[in-house]
Specification:
Elements: H1 3-26, H2 29-34, H3 40-44, H4 48-73, E1 86-89, E2 94-97, H5 103-139, H6 151-158, H7 163-189, H8 211-217, H9 225-259, H10 266-278, H11 281-291, H12 297-304, H13 307-313, H14 330-357, H15 362-370, H16 375-403, H17 406-413, H18 422-426, H19 435-444, H20 449-474
Antiparallel strand pairs: 1-2
Amino acid sequence: MNKKEKQGIFRGFVNYFKELGTAITKGDVYVKLSMIFMGAGYTGHKQLIKGLLATLVEIAFIVMCVVYAAPNLAKFGTLGTVEFKQELDPLTLQTTVNDYDNSFTILLHSMIALFLIFCFILFWIANIKTVYRLQLRHQNQDIPGNHINTFGEDVKDMLGKKFHITMLALPTLGVILMNIIPILVLVAIAFTNYDQNHMPPNQLFTWVGFSNFGNLFANSITVSFSYAFRKILGWTLLWAVLATVTTFIGGILLAMLINKETTKVKKLWRTLFVVSIAVPQFVTLLLVRYFFADDGIVNAICNNIGFTGFLKDIGLVGKSLNYIPFLSEEHWTKFMIIVINIWVGVPYQMLIATGVLMNIPVDQVESARLDGATKFQVFTKIMMPYILFIQGPALITDFVKNINNFNVIYLLTNNSYVTPDQAMANAHGKEVDLLVTWLFRLTNEYSNYKMASVIGIIVFIICAVFTILSFTRMIGGGREEDYQ
């Protein structure tokens, strides 16, 4: 995002509230009434259907606040005070349960209520502005831009030239329900003590402020999350860079090799690699994990041919081991993860690179060759810049995807790698974990939702910052003209 775009966003934000202030200060009686009775402005300007709809929205909001929002928001500050209790009734010999509070339910419904209130505020502001534009329209009939559609005209537009907005309404609602609200709940949980010791409905959890973030960033003798976070974050970023670069370069080199004029049966080679993509990744990774296990077939072969002994002699395998710790020792495991990811990811990158290479401007390549450029110079000065320009967005996406590459890490290391580091084990992490696999283990195996939420926020920030910076620097600049 360049400076001009940033200034445009800032001006739009300022103008949004400036227009509201103008409407409130210069609006007529109908605008003033619309601040309390939302349908009054439309009704006063003889748009009865819009007035009725605005009134119904306001009534629905009031009912929602009284029936739904108020009871939940009243407990939002404490997330509940009445604990779950079971008592045996001596007369009926039946177990009765008290009217207890569920902290998670209170949190979820409170976040939904706050989101609905926020949406209503935006609707209220839009309503004020629209009524003010109605006022201007009636005062200045001939001024362009003051026309406000009637309800019938709005319906016609929504089924005509604005039909795309109508079609996007349902997907937008799905995004809100499936993404925005869960993200808000995730962020809120990071400021609570929601863990295995405070599990609703049997226990309550409450707000603890920034203490969870302190545990993640501050050194402590009793809490080792900070130690584990530094090691796992470093490996996550290193892994994302290596996984992205190796598969990207490998895919380009493989595509160039297959497309080379001297290569025979090109279709056969492409088909073989496409078939490897067709096999579900989790099946491939699970099989590979068994192959490279301490007692797997690869270790058996290495023992039989003397390769394990050779690695012992040069110090790459401990003298006390009779196997190669492919997936049970930190450095070996990290190396194998990268190698296996190359094998899994290169065929896909090869297909993408093949399409890009076929569209490289031939005239530029021929001109460079006529000028005496070597093959390496043609590759580095013409082909790679073009490939990076075309695949830039995909490359950024791959990097972010690798930060969250759950399958490769978890399926290869689960039940095969055990950390020897007690501080790491206390934080329920492993040296070969990514932030996302650590997050999964904290929630799925140890129910430590508070720290998992903090880690989730950190992952989101890392991905968002990198994506924004990369897109603005790699894609911006009008480089399309260079390849016309």
